[in-house]
Design goal:
Layout lengths: L10 H11 L4 E4 L14 H16 L2 E4 L1 H11 L9 E3 L3 E2 L1 H8 L4 E4 L4 E2 L1 H9 L3 E4 L1
Parallel strand pairs: 1-2, 3-5, 4-6, 5-7
Length: about 140
């Protein structure tokens, strides 16, 4: 919502707004939009209002995408040795399958403090020499 008003409220919104001001391609993961988790339980009018804000930021050129889409785009661009400097996810649990997907995208994976990384996922990151950063 802050992005749709051009308001810096944290590092993420500042980065997105800076990117828009500099005509950069911005993608936001749909799973990381908090209100989507409450679709079935929240007030319908409030949910619709939040969806309107997502529509506003989409009109600004921000692409709301899924992890599957990003994986597909990056696998296509991998032939050009394209790699993200770092990848951030707000997932609370990183399983083997998730680790397999995201370990290919970046050498640096940023996770929230308290995120649980299963032993098999840790093995994947170690094998691919991914650096895990908890913030």
């Amino acid at each position: 919502m802050d992005i749709s008003f051009g308001k810096y409220s944290n590092k993420t919104t500042k980065c997105v707004i800076y990117g828009l001001l500099n005509d950069k391609n911005i993608m936001i993961l749909k799973d990381n939009i908090e209100f989507n988790k409450y679709k079935d339980v929240c007030n319908k009018n409030f949910y619709d209002m939040m969806n309107d804000y997502v529509s506003k930021i989409s009109k600004l050129g921000i692409n709301v995408v899924t992890e599957k889409y990003i994986t597909k785009v990056l696998s296509i661009n991998n032939s050009a040795n394209f790699e993200l400097k770092s990848l951030s996810t707000h997932k609370k649990l990183i399983t083997f399958e998730i680790a397999e997907d995201i370990s290919k995208l970046s050498s640096e994976i940023v996770l929230k403090k308290g995120c649980i990384v299963t032993p098999l996922a840790k093995d994947v990151f170690a094998e691919k020499k991914n650096k895990l950063i908890f913030i």
